[in-house]
């Protein structure tokens, strides 16, 4: 299983991840990215389906600040 979470403290609101993986990432009022898939609200607790793994990895690889995290267990963040 894979889970993802955005470290907003280091996100620079560049817009890359939402363009690469719009089903997984979207932006808050400040333009900072967060995980929206399945209503995740950037808690990192929603399992990302296997068919989205390519988009997920592309988004991680494309983030200029390494703010997109991936793990095989839930992040349990507060969003
Ligand atoms: Fe933020 Fe990285 Fe997404 Fe750019 S690609 S908006 S820096 S999380």
Automatic annotation (TrEMBL):
The gene is fer. This is Ferredoxin. Keywords: 4Fe-4S, Electron transport, Iron, Iron-sulfur, Metal-binding, Transport. Pfam families: Fer4_13. Its cofactor is [4Fe-4S] cluster. The keyword rRNA-binding does not apply. Ferredoxins are iron-sulfur proteins that transfer electrons in a wide variety of metabolic reactions. It comes from Paenibacillus cineris. SUPFAM superfamilies: 4Fe-4S ferredoxins. It comes from the Bacteria. The lineage of its organism: Bacteria, Bacillati, Bacillota, Bacilli, Bacillales. InterPro entries: 3Fe4S_ferredoxin, 4Fe4S_Fe-S-bd, ET_Ferredoxin. Gene3D superfamilies: 3.30.70.20.
